[in-house]
């Protein structure tokens, strides 16, 4: 589960190196100590990606819980369940993704040092860890946050592993497919928050019918598109070596990729403002100004990339995107906290 295939973030920040050759010890070959085994499992979960996914779920929870009556004890239990359940679900999905893509990962320099290509974990251990984390994550959400949050988490795992992952070597539409599970984590937090401090809802799926959660989904969905199209252009040769059919695979000059980046970054401006409309009284002018200004700045960077599809310009777009999203999330939380105090 990622923000799209959020492992591309760690790939894009890494420096390409020769493909390592598996060997004995902690860098290759089977693990020899409990510490090495634990380290390999942690890598399998992609901890930086898991943290990002958990953070977006946390923001959805904060926005959903604002203005609702609650007891601090209940809030703590449901909030902790939301974060732990989302983290476990994300770790499980990431592990299953690496299990499925082991052969393709071995062909790409930036991913060849992962635990499975290097032989530090067996395929069975990786699959078992992925299934266990996924079951624990969905179970925690079901027990502590309700069926709606658990269902969204389950859907995220299934779409990411069973739909998005096998689509990557088949069609460039994989980016759009992957944006769906990447955009769902805020909905987990939103659904979890709906049950805090209120009577049982009339129907279990009622949180899924509310516009606030879907506005967060829309923001996350659109944000991923220019972000990952830029990464696909930066690392088009690596993706080609791994058999990933990205848009850049079919676009030798980069013109179509550049136009797509500009179009989706332009769409991102209204998408970032959508939560203001969907959550009146929760978000307002403060967040709206931050979203509008940062969205326009990001669009300008994308337009500059279109003038010349060079790797440094694509990298600037990528770096700007990973600054843009946290700024938006922090602005949301800050405004909610200010309104709660005042």
Characterize the structure shown.
This protein has 342 residues and is an all-alpha fold. It has one domain (7-341): Farnesyl Diphosphate Synthase, CATH 1.10.600. The chain has helices at 7-13, 34-44, 47-65, 72-100, 102-105, 123-145, 147-167, 174-183, 185-193, 211-234, 236-241, 255-278, 285-307, 311-341. Helix 3 runs parallel beside helix 9, helix 3 runs parallel beside helix 14 (311-341) and helix 4 (72-100) packs parallel to helix 7 (147-167).
Main pleated-sheet profile: none
Structural class of the secondary structure composition?
mainly alpha
Order of helices and strands: HHHHHHHHHHHHHH
Q: Rg from C-alpha positions?
A: 20 Å
CATH architecture title? Orthogonal Bundle
Tally of alpha and pi helices: 14
Mean pLDDT: 86
- Total domain modules: 1
Chain-wise SSE layout:
Blueprint: H1 7-13, H2 34-44, H3 47-65, H4 72-100, H5 102-105, H6 123-145, H7 147-167, H8 174-183, H9 185-193, H10 211-234, H11 236-241, H12 255-278, H13 285-307, H14 311-341
Helix pairs in contact: 3-4, 3-9, 3-14, 4-6, 4-7, 4-9, 6-7, 7-8, 7-9, 8-10, 9-10, 10-12, 10-14, 12-13, 13-14
Briefly, what is this?
This protein is an all-alpha fold. It contains 14 helices and no strands.
Describe the structure using short key phrases:
342 residues, mainly alpha, Farnesyl Diphosphate Synthase, 14 helices, 0% strand, globular
